[in-house]
Amino acid sequence: MYEFAYHKPSSVADAVKLLSADPEARPIAGGHTLLPALKHRLARPTALVDLSGIAELRGIRREGDKVVIGALARHAEVANSDAVKGAIPALARLAGTIGDVQVRNRGTLGGSVANNDPAADYPAAVLGLGATVVTDRRRIAADDFFTGMFSTALEPGELLVAIEFPIPEKAGYAKMKNPASRYVMTGAFVSRGPQGVRVAINGAGPCVFRQREMEAALAANWSPDAVANIRQSPDGLNSDIHGSAEYRAHLVTVMAKRAVADAG
């Protein structure tokens, strides 16, 4: 690692002040992406701002027709939350399949969403449920938040505080995961509810995206058969040693069918 300063603020205001004062400082929560990058000297921040001491970033609660989850909520907490299991069981199941036990007890919702790894699970749930990302300065609709590979609408010094998930009538998730890393090769999160019918695809492309043709089909007929004959174009999809773009395009249909079946 390169040398860096270390800060551990106790409030969002203090964290934002530190990040705004130093454009090269980086926030750290679970650290699953940043720490390996530091160890391999792929990142050289001037300072790390440890968010783990900020109580206002924690907590999971139901507020009327939505579930609000703090940015520091760990995957295991989301998976085991009675509020999440009761209102959006598909989200709880998704959280319970992330990585392994160690990852689930260290990684955070906010860190995963802000990082926007193409192979991460949570972005599919955020986009697939039409959630709202709450930061220290504004509210960002899911459709406007994810902008590209490892890129989001967050501005320099802006901190993700919580995510508000509308409670759907139905929701389901399915994924094909790499057997070694457990990262998503292709996944689909589907929902029907106050945000309409939504189908979010993760892992297949550089960034999570909505499959509009499948959404229209499911709006007319909510069943796995409705998406069975819809083919995703491989153009622009990821292609690597784990799977070609054509293979991932095929998986989009397979995972969408399974996600609808999971939703019931």
What does this structure look like?
It is a single chain. The chain is of the alpha+beta class and 264 residues long. The chain folds into 2 domains: 5-166, Uridine Diphospho-n-acetylenolpyruvylglucosamine Reductase, domain 3, CATH 3.30.465; 170-263, CO dehydrogenase flavoprotein, C-terminal domain (Enolase-like, domain 1). It is built from 11 helices and 14 strands. A 5-stranded antiparallel sheet has the order 4-5-10-6-7. The chain has a 4-stranded antiparallel sheet with strand order 11-12-13-14, sandwiched between helices. Strands 1-3-2 form a 3-stranded parallel sheet, covered by helices on one side. Helix 2 links the parallel strand 2 and strand 3 (47-50). It is globular. It starts with a strand and ends with a helix. 43% of the residues are buried. The mean pLDDT is 96. It comes from Caldovatus aquaticus. Residues 1-170 form the FAD-binding PCMH-type domain. This is Xanthine dehydrogenase family protein subunit M.
